[in-house]
């Protein structure tokens, strides 16, 4: 579903992605972990060109783009293959939860309003927020806002969903409700790439974990093996720093 070859990205003199290559299968859930400054969020943002790599090839489903030479049409085609969920929700403050979801359906997909509203309500039901459909973001908790953001991402029927630290801005008691939704999507074989620091969640939900440091992929493999049994000293050192983070071990609804 997703292939990136030799992605190279720098900010000024600092190289943040040094010829990174990844392959992600349809229906696979991949968690990207690593210390701050490792390049994990930049890699995610490069996949839909929120950050523009200096070089490299990106393919998502049947759309391929050379990051050194591409047209506006090719950029739009690549971006339309994915949806992104940000750590700070990025909801329209002046629109209700339902309107945040239907906006893209009306403006981009050109759906009739009745159909867009029906789809929006169905998605809010999926994330447990049907009763909050007509509330504005300011009246919702952080966890509820993030669930609206996930519903909005699902609305455009993407080939893959990209999550950039989806729980990092949440109070600890709100993390669980967002992780529940993501695990439900994983059970449905939704292709997802998740930058996260929730190691227990990554172990239970992700099919594969990629550990990054200093702009390189240090190692990757089955989630439980990497998190519990890695023999790479950099990975083990990073995981030891997180050993005392308490994350619920049960995410089922």
Automatic annotation (TrEMBL):
UniProt keywords, alphabetically: ATP-binding, Cell membrane, Membrane, Nucleotide-binding, Transport
Record-linked CDD domains: ABC_HisP_GlnQ (cd03262)
Keyword set includes Transport: yes
SMART domains named among the record's database cross-references: AAA
Pfam family, one: ABC_tran
Chief location bin: membrane
Membrane topology term: Peripheral membrane protein
InterPro entries per record: AAA+_ATPase (IPR003593), ABC_ATPase_HisP-typ (IPR030679), ABC_transporter-like_ATP-bd (IPR003439), ABC_transporter-like_CS (IPR017871), MetN_ABC_transporter-like (IPR050086), P-loop_NTPase (IPR027417)
The UniProt record lists the keyword DNA repair: no
Cellular compartment(s): Cell inner membrane
Family: Belongs to the ABC transporter superfamily.
Protein name per UniProt: ATP-binding cassette domain-containing protein
């Amino acid at each position: 579903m997703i292939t990136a070859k030799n992605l190279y990205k720098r900010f000024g003199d600092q190289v943040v992605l040094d010829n990174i290559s990844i392959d992600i299968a349809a229906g696979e859930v991949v968690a990207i972990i690593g210390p701050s400054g490792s390049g994990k969020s930049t890699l995610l943002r490069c996949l839909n060109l929120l950050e523009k790599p200096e070089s490299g090839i990106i393919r998502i489903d049947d759309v391929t783009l050379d990051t050194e030479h591409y047209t506006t049409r090719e950029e739009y085609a690549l971006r339309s293959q994915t949806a992104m969920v940000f750590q700070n929700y990025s909801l329209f403050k002046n629109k209700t939860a339902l309107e945040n979801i239907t906006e893209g359906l009306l403006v981009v997909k050109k759906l009739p309003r009745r159909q867009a509203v029906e789809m929006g309500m169905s998605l809010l039901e999926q994330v447990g927020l049907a009763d909050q459909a007509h509330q504005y973001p300011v009246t919702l908790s952080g966890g509820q806002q993030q669930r609206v953001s996930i519903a909005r991402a699902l609305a455009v029927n993407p080939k893959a969903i990209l999550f950039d630290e989806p729980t990092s801005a949440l109070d600890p008691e709100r993390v669980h409700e967002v992780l529940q939704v993501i695990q439900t999507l994983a059970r449905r074989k939704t292709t997802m790439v998740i930058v996260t620091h929730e190691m227990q969640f990554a172990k239970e939900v992700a099919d594969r974990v990629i550990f990054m440091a200093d702009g390189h992929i240090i190692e990757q493999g089955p989630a439980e093996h990497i998190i519990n049994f890695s023999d790479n000293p950099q990975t083990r050192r990073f995981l030891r720093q997180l050993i005392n983070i308490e994350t619920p071990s049960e995410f089922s609804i």
